[in-house]
Amino acid sequence: MKGFISFLLFWSVSLAAQSTPVNLDFSQVAEQMPIGWNIQGNEPEVITREHPTSSGQSLRLSRTETSSDSFAYAAQATPFDFIGKSLKLTGWIKTDQVSTDGGAALWIRLDSGSNLAAFDNMGENMLKGTEAWQQIELSVEVPPDVDMLTFGTLLAGTGTAYFADLKLTLDGMPLEQAPKPTFIASEPHQFEQDSGIRISQLSAA
């Protein structure tokens, strides 16, 4: 699990950035994979009908002792060009026999250029063992000059975890509805101002 935390902390964001977060309920699927998500280190069967309200579907991350790598994750990256102070990621998680040396979690990261600006991955609150559906909420303060948002789900160790109905909000507002910076024109240059010349009379040639 420490390996994944280090991976997230020092990861230089290399995902293909999308214009906006997509498919947070995992309802859009192509070739049995959720559209818009980068998924690594997982066993087959990614999308399931497991759901906290039995009215949708979920992302399934699963690992065994013979799985490649030491963790599985799903991630999205998108430019962050919103105005706000507190960014929240919420979602539902259910676990089945997740090993005590690992855990299932949501995670969120903000970057400013090449610098990590904010990060949360549930830390010691990762879900282990076998747990019924729980709604999880992460919150990070938004520093100035943030320009990239990366977020997703993870499973370290072995076992199975299900994730459903993720949501991103900024100051309590759905992220896609949050305000964006507006361009303010600078003061007009001298050549753009009134010349001060007045023509009061035209004389005949």
Present the secondary structure layout.
Blueprint: H1 2-10, E1 29-30, E2 33-34, E3 38-40, E4 47-48, E5 58-63, E6 71-79, E7 86-98, E8 103-112, E9 115-120, E10 129-141, E11 148-156, E12 159-170, E13 173-174
Antiparallel strand pairs: 1-2, 3-6, 4-5, 5-12, 6-11, 7-10, 7-12, 8-9, 8-11, 12-13
* Strand element count: 13
Identify low-pLDDT runs: 190-205
Query: What about the largest sheet?
Result: 6 strands, antiparallel
Cα Rg: 24 Å
Order of helices and strands: HEEEEEEEEEEEEE
Number of domains: 1
What CATH architecture do you see? Answer: Sandwich
**Terminal-residue CA separation:** 89 Å
- The CATH topology corresponds to Jelly Rolls
Mean pLDDT: 85
General description of the model:
The protein has 205 residues and is mostly beta strands. It has a single domain, classed as Galactose-binding domain-like (Jelly Rolls, Sandwich). 4% of the residues lie in helices and 43% in strands. The chain contains one helix and 13 strands; from the N terminus they run H-E-E-E-E-E-E-E-E-E-E-E-E-E. The chain has one helix at 2-10; strands spanning 29-30, 33-34, 38-40, 47-48, 58-63, 71-79, 86-98, 103-112, 115-120, 129-141, 148-156, 159-170, 173-174. The strands form three sheets. Strands 4, 5, 7, 10, 12 and 13 form a six-stranded antiparallel sheet that branches. It has a five-stranded antiparallel sheet with strand order 3-6-11-8-9, covered by helices on one side. Strand 8 (103-112) and strand 9 (115-120) form a beta hairpin. The protein starts with a helix and ends in a 31-residue tail after the last strand. The model is unreliable at 190-205 (pLDDT under 50).
